[in-house]
Specification:
Two copies of one chain form a homodimer. Chain A has four helices and no strands. By secondary structure, chain A is mainly α. The first copy, chain A, has a single domain, classed as Monooxygenase (Up-down Bundle), CATH 1.20.1280. In chain A, α1 runs parallel beside α4, α2 packs parallel to α4 and α3 runs antiparallel to α4. At the A-B interface, α1, α2 and α3 of A face α1, α2 and α3 of B. Chains A, B: Pfam families: PQ-loop.
């Protein structure tokens, strides 16, 4: 594996993991009022399209990183609806 | 341009634009208490790595979409620090 591939994997790891601190914060505080549900709906729409793109291109890293990001961000949407004030 | 390329561009457009509803919400409400700054710092780190990856690969779409996402998410970080409670 070359340096460029390692760089791409590191980039993917960071953009995929980004939602984890937000999940952690929502989980701890149970407060999500200022978080935009729209952000996460647009995001999982895009991630879903990336998964389809990865399947068509038979590109495992694109499928894997976007698949994981899709699951993590879907869980954040679940937390938003669980904790939002009625 | 083939359908696969159009799909990739659509996917990139959605994941790049995702932060816009969050920027809009923060701008309107001036409330960012429940938003995780960590999420946006991890995200722009990853986006910065994607930009370097795009430069090395001479891949204009990767540079352009991640460059735009980097600017939008940096602006969101600015809003978080502007509006957070002291």
């Amino acid at each position: 594996m070359g340096w460029t591939e390692i760089l791409g994997l590191a980039a993917g790891a960071f953009t995929t993991a980004a939602v984890v601190p937000q999940i952690w914060k929502a989980w701890k505080t149970k407060e999500v009022e200022d978080v935009s549900p729209g952000m996460f709906f647009v995001l999982i729409t895009g991630l879903g399209l990336w998964i389809v793109y990865g399947v068509i291109q038979k590109d495992i890293p694109i499928m894997a990183t976007n698949g994981l990001a899709f699951l993590l961000n879907s869980f954040m949407i679940f937390l938003i609806f669980r904790y939002r004030e009625k």
